[in-house]
Amino acid sequence: MRAKVFALCCHAIENARLLLTSNDVMNVGIGNAHDHVGRYFMDHTHIFASRFIPGPEFPAAYDRMYADLFHLNANVGFTDDFIRKEKLLQYYCRFNPVYMDPRTREAMGYVRDGFMAPGDFAYLRDVATMLGEVGGVTRFSLSRTNLRHIQPDYYELEHRLEQAPNPDSRVVISDRRDALGSLIADLDWRILDEDVRSFKIGQERIASEFAALGYGRVELEEITRDLVESRIAGHYHQIGTTRMSDVPEDGVVDRNQRVHGVGNLYIGGSSVFPTAGYSGPTMMIVGFTIRLAEHIEKQLAA
Ligand SMILES: Cc1cc2nc3c(=O)[nH]c(=O)nc-3n(C[C@H](O)[C@H](O)[C@H](O)COP(=O)(O)OP(=O)(O)OC[C@H]3O[C@@H](n4cnc5c(N)ncnc54)[C@H](O)[C@@H]3O)c2cc1C
């Protein structure tokens, strides 16, 4: 393939894999002279921990029935001042309503979504599970209508966090090949103590503020590294494997998303983000990509 300019926009894991496996000319991979390609992999992380038992005042602040009816979710975050003072990563807490045992909720989902035929053993077992907690199922169903004002028994706290950049969290190349003979990427996704600390302080502050406001009480689970590692999940928001930097020693692309040391190769997508933030990456990806297209257009016209 021959072109004046190339733009690599295959998303964070594949962008890194293509650079690392393109090693005919630069044997450590394109743009990898300083060993940054594939490193600093981040996602938007979340864990479930602790439960909030709402008091009678809570629906005035957050009425779950109203939120359900309009498919809304409320999140509680912190002010910029608090985040800076406590040296926190960006954090917010989501309140997930619980009307019944999680196993009953799961069974209800399978039955509702028609995952199996009505005569199947699994179907009958799930219906039996629902009948075993018919009160919770009824209250959950009513909470989705505007017939009755039904609040959940409690809320599960879902803690959502911006992940801190970590060079050891990375995309690496395995020795396995796909059907076309290309080497497959592996992901070594890691968290730092800083991530655990932000989850912990975030939860503590939510619990103390809600208690002070008289909204209810929190049954706290202690947030430890083990707890975080056993529960952490991402949001398919893959970020950071070809990070942007002013100088080649610190990253992979320059401020115009051109690969350091390569005249005509640009990278688009969240792989160029040096930090992850906590909101969905796609609007920023689109913004950066429009800017990149304009830059390339100017370069070609010059
Ligand atoms: C279930 C789910 C929910 C999400 N929800 C949200 C959300 O609510 N908000 C939000 O902001 N983001 C969300 N995201 C993330 C969002 O989808 C991504 O941030 C966004 O799609 C990334 O855009 P991109 O163009 O960089 O990569 P992609 O959309 O992944 O596009 C990459 C393209 O490159 C192609 N490609 C890959 N490898 C090669 C190759 N070797 N050769 C040629 N072509 C190749 C792929 O086929 C694809 O078309 C979600 C993702 C998932 C999976």
TrEMBL record:
<dbReference type="Pfam" id="PF05199">
    <property type="entry name" value="GMC_oxred_C"/>
</dbReference>
<keyword id="KW-0560">Oxidoreductase</keyword>
<comment type="similarity">
    <text>Belongs to the GMC oxidoreductase family.</text>
</comment>
<keyword id="KW-0274">FAD</keyword>
<dbReference type="GO" id="GO:0016614">
    <property type="term" value="F:oxidoreductase activity, acting on CH-OH group of donors"/>
</dbReference>
<protein>
    <submittedName>
        <fullName>GMC oxidoreductase</fullName>
    </submittedName>
</protein>
<feature type="domain" description="Glucose-methanol-choline oxidoreductase C-terminal">
    <location>
        <begin position="165"/>
        <end position="286"/>
    </location>
</feature>
<dbReference type="InterPro" id="IPR051473">
    <property type="entry name" value="P2Ox-like"/>
</dbReference>
<dbReference type="InterPro" id="IPR036188">
    <property type="entry name" value="FAD/NAD-bd_sf"/>
</dbReference>
<keyword id="KW-0285">Flavoprotein</keyword>
<dbReference type="InterPro" id="IPR007867">
    <property type="entry name" value="GMC_OxRtase_C"/>
</dbReference>
